[in-house]
Description:
This protein is of the alpha+beta class. The chain folds into 4 domains: 2-102, no CATH class; 107-143; 154-237 and 379-418, 2-Layer Sandwich (Nucleotidyltransferase, domain 5); 238-371. Helices cover 43% and strands 19% of the residues. The strands form 4 sheets. Strands 1, 2, 3, 4 and 5 form a 5-stranded mixed beta sheet that branches. Strands 8-7-6-9-10 form a 5-stranded mixed beta sheet, with helices on both faces.
Amino acid sequence: MDNINHLLQVLLNLASDDIQTIRITNKDSTPFYFVRLNSSLQECPICSSTSFRSLGYYKREVILPNNVFTGAKVILEVPRKYCCTCNSSFSDMKHMAPKNKTISYKTILEVMELLKDQKMIFNSVATLLHISESSVVRIFDSHCHITRSTFPDVVCIDEVYTKNSDFNSKYSCIFYDFYQHSIIDVLPSRHKSYLHHYFQDIPRDELLNVKYVCIDMYRPYKDIVKLYFKKALICVDSFHVIKHLNEDLSKVRIRVMKKYSIDSNEYYLLKNWENLLFDNNIELNNQGKYNKRFKQVLNYRQLQELIFQIDSDIRIAYQLKDNYMRFNQTSTIKEAPAYLDTCIESFILANIPEYCEFTSLLTNWREEIINSFTLYKGRRINNSVAESMNAKISTLLFNTKGIRNHERRKKRIMYMINKTGFSVK
Length: 425
């Protein structure tokens, strides 16, 4: 009984002297816990009079998040008073549950804490806490109060794929705070018309305070930033540039590979050792291992050289990629213009068909790529903060099958990432 008493105190947010008695009965195989509370009010909450009399107790059922009370009924017997001065009646309420609600504050806290995890969906939270899924949804909608944050000095813009959206868009647009690693706002669409409508409601002075905006190479973002963030420098995320470069190098590899039969050494090298063209973290001068195909000991550098000997386009394409990677990793904002122009010229002279699109990309986004070498508080501006958060968001959306309602999806994403916005009221 002492254990039950202590557990009820914790779950109901009560002190030990708040509980007068606990009675346990059974009716139709259902256990009933009757918790009678002591009176603590010393004056009328309406007129502050100390002249009042008892009206007995009223009974109130509450739901508690604990296996002990699964299938049981917890009934609170709350003291009720009548004020002889102002003729008002009132209950001697404790901080156990919201007014006219059966779910305790403890359950609400448990729900909101669990929903900070991207792997948790409404149904799994309901199962863990022995309440209905609709109750979890109502708790979240009622107690998660999140609004747009002020746009900071550095803003990152990215998107996540959202199926089952109420809006005619496959992607939600997300604004990130580069320095604070938090979400500013989530929009249901990245369409240019929607972005126009959104930014027309943002105070002009707030937008003028933004110094840098980092984007991927989605053209409408660039147009919107130029129109509304008039004092901001646009930076292209280096990750997306490298992604395009690797995709084009892969096209060169596939083109050359298709010239050879499946059982050839050339096909074997290009198919099974492609990582030697893309992974910059591989130690090429490693200890060699016996290769059954070539019947000799080979290290990674020797295997890479065998790949280069297959076709000159492979060697040239790799060298161009390697040169750009070195530029991306070592250049400064001062050196970037000349270094980038040299890279562009090298791609043009190589005349590799698969790199034509990438060469155009470097030319069309030259200024924004150079801006990306800007340092803000010692850090190069990029969308790495967005990419790391997008992974969590994608996990959440996959587990929840999208969350069709945009407002609920927005609140769930921002609450999960920012860990703020919960209010018991």
